[in-house]
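Re: [ENG-882] Designed sequences occasionally contain unexpected residues at chain ends

Forwarding the minimal case from QA. Structure tokens:
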């Protein structure tokens, strides 16, 4: 017996709703697209959060040795990164699907490349709404090459943020808790438990974001979030680093340099730090900075590429999960390109990555059936310096979008008890 038509229609509607409601992931580029930098100009970290009067910039290199036509599109999302139902003219002033016209070819480098730059907003486009956006880069053939998230804040709320020691003694030495308050500038929030949404990020990493928090209580017009367990992060460990700004010589953590078809930088072999006591080492929380000592120091087009050889000491091969080298330089995305291979002759894992000259933070992680275990090899400590960001969204009654009304930042350098 065939099901009634109404049942078929209902199933169709539910399937469509499920597809639309799925979170839109970031898209990782093909191997010939390298050195993606996306940030707000003037900010010390690579996280594009835009406020009134600010500009953000996307940069990347094309190593295919030719000048290609690339186009950009912009989409708008709800607070949970599901696609919004708004039309483009609701959130954009101007138009997108335009060609990237600002590009330069590399100068005096062994690895030829074309460097592309896009600034937003620009003379063709501006943002009408605060909230979540994505920037998509397409080839001339319509292939999606990369997608990166960014957010626009309207600054209509103040967010005071602090990092605290957890009150649970079982996690006192390993975790950090984020507590914050949200104060509207103007009228108080209506139904904040249902209409105010918050996202807490550690070192600007979306995969580990904490969501779903509601205010514990209201102090006047101020929403107070004083959670301990539900807003708790592993402290992790300080990132490892290397610096290839002078690609011809060994620098701290670069053991030696060789010149073949390209320069090759061999890093010191790193130990597994999971059982080591905490040792402070300054880092930039997983970020990287392109720079060079060669030429006139125009790093965008004069920095060269080298094979960077990573090695991790391990007496035996791990029986479950794969090991990867992650950092902001590969958007913390495990892949076959950054997967390490076990070398029994050297009693360790190895991998080589083609990277542009600069200062890099990195970390060894384990990918298993449960996902990425970021701290399985490095250990976790409450003393570790981390940067936290709290994003606050508000959708009043009758509104069709989640406005980003404010954000707050804090560092665990100012860890509170």
């Amino acid at each position: 017996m065939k099901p009634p038509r109404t049942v078929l229609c209902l199933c169709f509607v539910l399937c469509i709703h499920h597809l639309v409601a799925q979170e839109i992931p970031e898209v990782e580029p093909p191997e010939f697209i390298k050195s993606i930098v996306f940030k707000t100009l003037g900010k010390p970290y690579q996280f594009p959060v835009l406020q009134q009067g600010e500009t953000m910039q996307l940069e990347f290199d094309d190593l295919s040795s030719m000048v290609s036509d690339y186009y950009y599109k912009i989409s708008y999302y709800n607070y949970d990164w599901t696609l919004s139902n708004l039309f483009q003219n609701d959130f954009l002033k101007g138009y997108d699907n335009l060609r990237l016209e600002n590009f330069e070819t590399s100068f005096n480098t062994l690895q030829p490349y074309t460097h592309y730059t896009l600034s937003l907003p620009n003379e063709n486009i501006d943002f009408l709404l605060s909230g979540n956006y994505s920037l998509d880069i397409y080839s001339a053939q319509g292939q999606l090459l990369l997608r990166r998230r960014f957010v626009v804040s309207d600054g209509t709320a103040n967010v005071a943020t602090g990092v605290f020691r957890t009150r649970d003694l079982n996690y006192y030495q390993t975790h950090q808790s984020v507590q914050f308050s949200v104060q509207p500038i103007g009228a108080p929030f209506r139904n904040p438990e249902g209409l105010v949404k918050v996202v807490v990020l550690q070192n600007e990493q979306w995969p580990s974001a904490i969501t779903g928090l509601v205010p514990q209580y209201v102090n006047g017009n101020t929403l107070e979030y004083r959670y301990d367990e539900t807003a708790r992060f592993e402290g992790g460990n300080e990132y490892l680093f290397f610096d290839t700004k002078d690609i011809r010589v060994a620098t701290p953590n670069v053991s030696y340099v060789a010149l073949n078809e390209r320069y090759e930088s061999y890093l010191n072999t790193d130990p597994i730090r999971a059982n080591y006591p905490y040792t402070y080492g300054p880092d930039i929380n997983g970020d990287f900075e392109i720079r060079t000592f060669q030429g006139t120091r125009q790093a965008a087009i004069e920095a060269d590429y080298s094979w960077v050889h990573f090695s991790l000491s391990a007496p035996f091969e791990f029986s479950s999960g794969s090991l990867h080298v992650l950092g902001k330089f590969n958007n913390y995305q495990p892949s076959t390109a950054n997967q390490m291979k076990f070398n029994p002759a050297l009693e360790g894992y190895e991998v080589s990555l083609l990277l542009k000259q600069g200062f890099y933070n990195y970390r060894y992680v384990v990918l298993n059936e449960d996902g990425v275990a970021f701290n399985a090899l490095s250990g976790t400590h409450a003393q570790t310096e981390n940067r936290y960001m709290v994003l606050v969204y508000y959708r009043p009654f009758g509104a069709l979008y989640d406005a980003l009304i404010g954000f707050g930042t804090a560092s665990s350098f100012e860890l509170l008890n």
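QA comment: On inspection the terminal residues look reasonable. Confidence is low (pLDDT under 50) at residues 5-20. Proposing we downgrade this to a documentation issue.
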